[in-house]
């Protein structure tokens, strides 16, 4: 639902940029569009938007420069740098979007860790997800991940999420469906 809302916002902002006199819009529109691209992980469009923004607008606006740092971290898959860059006092017109981006990134990282790791040290998980030890304990409890107690850093054993088994369809079933479809078209 939120993603669709952002997609609609992006289309509206892009139209406003195209229809702007002289092709130059307000800093607010640039920052909202840049944030929307970042949220959608549309890094190519974010990159081209950055190139379109006039240099005088870029250098005079620290929020846009900070968004560019977030973009660079996403582009380079630098999760630790991403969390440092996104922890910024965003203006009210992009703060919700940047907060949602951070939450989305944390959730995607946790899902990836669950699928890719059989064990991970607590400090590495904390750095990758920007969470405190208390938050890590809650996360592990909610996901039913095992924490091996011992000297710090503790070892965490993620449980792989269940994989949906592909539906097995026999060749005879496929042939029957195709026959039924052709019969339907002929009649």
UniProtKB/TrEMBL annotation:
An annotated GO cellular component of this protein is: COP9 signalosome
Q: What is its main location?
A: cytoplasm
One short Pfam family name for this protein? CSN8_PSD8_EIF3K
- UniProt keyword Amino-acid biosynthesis, yes or no: no
What highest taxon heads this organism's lineage? Eukaryota
InterPro entries for this protein = COP9_CSN8, CSN8_PSD8_EIF3K
From what organism does this protein derive? Aedes aegypti
Q: Keywords, A to Z?
A: Cytoplasm, Nucleus, Signalosome
The CSN8/PSMD8/EIF3K domain sits at 27-150
Where in the cell is the protein located? Cytoplasm; Nucleus
Q: What is this protein called?
A: CSN8/PSMD8/EIF3K domain-containing protein
What is the phylogenetic placement of the source species in the record?
Eukaryota, Metazoa, Ecdysozoa, Arthropoda, Hexapoda
Which GO biological-process labels does this protein carry?
COP9 signalosome assembly; protein deneddylation
């Amino acid at each position: 639902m939120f993603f669709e809302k952002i997609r609609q916002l992006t289309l509206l902002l892009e139209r406003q940029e195209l229809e702007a006199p002289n092709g130059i819009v307000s800093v607010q529109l640039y920052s909202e569009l840049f944030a929307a691209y970042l949220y959608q992980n549309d890094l190519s469009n974010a990159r081209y938007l950055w190139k379109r923004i006039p240099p005088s607008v870029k250098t005079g606006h620290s929020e846009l420069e900070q968004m560019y740092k977030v973009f660079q971290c996403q582009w380079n898959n630098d999760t630790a740098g991403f969390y440092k860059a996104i922890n910024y006092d965003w203006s009210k017109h992009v703060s919700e979007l940047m907060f949602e981006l951070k939450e989305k990134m944390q959730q995607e990282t946790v899902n990836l860790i669950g699928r890719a790791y059989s064990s991970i040290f607590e400090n590495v998980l904390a750095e990758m997800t920007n969470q405190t030890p208390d938050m890590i304990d809650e996360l592990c409890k909610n996901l039913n991940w095992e924490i091996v107690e011992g000297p710090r850093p503790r070892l965490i054993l993620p449980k792989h999420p269940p994989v949906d088994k592909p539906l097995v369809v026999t060749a005879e079933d496929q042939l029957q469906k195709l026959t039924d479809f052709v019969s339907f078209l002929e009649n």
